[in-house]
Amino acid sequence: MTPSNPFKFLSLFLNACVLTAILTGNSFAQVADPAEKGERIYGNYCMTCHGESLINSGQSFDLRKLKVTEKARFENSVQNGKNQMPPWKGVISASDMQYIWAYIRTLANDKDQMTSE
Ligand code: HEC
Fold first, then answer.
1. CA 96 – CA 23 distance, rounded (Å)
2. Residues with beta carbon inside 6 Å of ligand 1?
């Protein structure tokens, strides 16, 4: 890099920044398929108890029963735990929780209803 060309250097530097932001971007909007990402996170942390494709033989809660209106309940239970379920605060990030929720919505019993009580 020749010091006589500071603008070229600046431009290359900014390009590198943009590229880094794209490659390491973890904003929700940049993920091609949030539900697919959620499925992977679910597989790592939740599947042992909640079962493959959210189907378990009754040893834990059936996540397909969560209604589209129960997102706050979902977030609260995941963060703070419930009875036999450990709290996930500090393990599952807020954005990872959104991915898991997106995955759950694809398999939910009420998935066809956009608004349900
Ligand atoms: C160690 C086993 C175990 C793991 C791992 C686990 N859960 Fe659970 N989960 C349970 C059990 C048991 C219940 C039922 C709690 C109850 O109602 O007594 C439950 C309940 C829930 C509920 C419903 C709570 C409510 O509001 O009634 C949600 C939501 C949930 N789990 C999400 C998750 C997510 C997301 C993960 C992965 C990050 C996860 N769980 C991992 C055992 C587990």
1. 18
2. 45-46, 48-50, 60-61, 63, 73-74, 77-78, 82-85, 88, 92, 100
79-111 pLDDT tens trace: 999 999 999 999 999 999 999 999 999 999 998
The gap between the terminal CA atoms of the chain, to the nearest Å, is 63
Please tell me the distance between residue 98's alpha carbon and the centre of ligand 1 in angstroms: 16
Per-residue pLDDT, averaged over 41-48, amounts to: 98
pTM assigned to the model: 0.79
